Amino acid sequence: MKKQLVAGLLAVCVAVAAIAGCGTKEPQQSGSFASGVQEGSVVEAEPSVDADISEDASAVGTDLSGEYVRDREDISTETDLDVTGREFYKEVLDLYCDYATNGWDENGEESYMFWHNTDGAMGLDDVGYYFCDLNGDGAPELIIGSVKLMYAEWPDIAYDVYASVDGEIIHLATSWERNRYYLCSDNSLLLTGSGGAGLTSWEKLVWNGGESLETIKELVYDHDDYPDSPWLYGEGGIEWSEMQHLTEEEGMKRIDEWEGKCIDIPVIPLRKYVEMK
């Protein structure tokens, strides 16, 4: 995926700048999912990822050979995370099944990328779900995404991300045209955002069990405010004005490193979920 994300994002910036206007610096990262409380307890989330994410973490969504697994047709290989996740996130999964069957709510919290700028509104065979453990506490988090590349303008995006905080389902993140989340092999998320052709950002995000994702590293290309030295880098969610300036070579090196950790999300089609009910 080397350089694909940055190339694709910059292309989108140019294409949509005239109709979308300038974006804001802070992308939407969280929101609550109404009536998402399930009976029963879930494992208490404990912080498990610090500012230096392990380079040796095994890849999410890979088989033993290291090859990415996209189509998970054989549900006999499902994990305990899958079984627990389907039960706990039943209300969310049922909602997406309803949208995929009867039409998407254009005013809903869910990513509009399921029905906007695609070849057609996505159905049960097009939308999929995937359970992962973002913070290492043994409890599942839910990612909703696209099953096949042909159905989405931007493949392998985590369209929507859900987690549990004190038994309540939280809508952690939602992607849109200029604000996209990617799952990484170290269980972090990469957020790419844009505020126009001269402003692009990349954020390494982790979830430590709270109500929102946390920014641990951020790279910004801000030609609008810093035309002579547009590459900025910071850690811990600091203000852009406090970031250090990088050379273009240093900036591109970090993009290559972060892109290299983005993986294909092996989502299971919603139709499989319906068949198992």
Description:
- Helix content is 21%, strand content 24%.
- With 277 residues, the chain is α+β, with helices and mostly antiparallel strands.
- A six-stranded antiparallel beta sheet has the order 1-5-4-3-2-12. Strands 6-7-8-9-10-11 form a six-stranded antiparallel beta sheet, covered by helices on one side.
- A hairpin with a 7-residue loop joins strand 8 and strand 9.
What keyword list fits this structure?
277 residues; alpha+beta; six-stranded antiparallel sheet
Number of helices: 5
The tally of beta strands, per DSSP, is 12
The main pleated sheet reads as:
6 strands, antiparallel
The proportion of strand residues reads 15-25%
Return Rg in Å: 18 Å
Helix content: 10-25%
Helix and strand element order: HEHHEEEEEEEEEEHEH
Distance between the ends = 36 Å
The main sheet orders its strands as 1-5-4-3-2-12
| Low-confidence region ranges | 9-74
| Class computed from helices, strands and strand pairing | alpha+beta
Shape type: globular
Short description:
With 277 residues, this protein is an alpha+beta fold. 21% of the residues lie in helices and 24% in strands.
List the helices and strands and how they pair.
Elements: H1 4-20, E1 31-32, H2 80-88, H3 90-102, E2 127-132, E3 141-146, E4 160-165, E5 168-174, E6 179-183, E7 189-196, E8 199-206, E9 214-222, E10 231-235, E11 244-246, H4 248-259, E12 268-269, H5 270-276
Antiparallel strand pairs: 1-5, 2-3, 2-12, 3-4, 4-5, 6-7, 7-8, 8-9, 9-10, 10-11
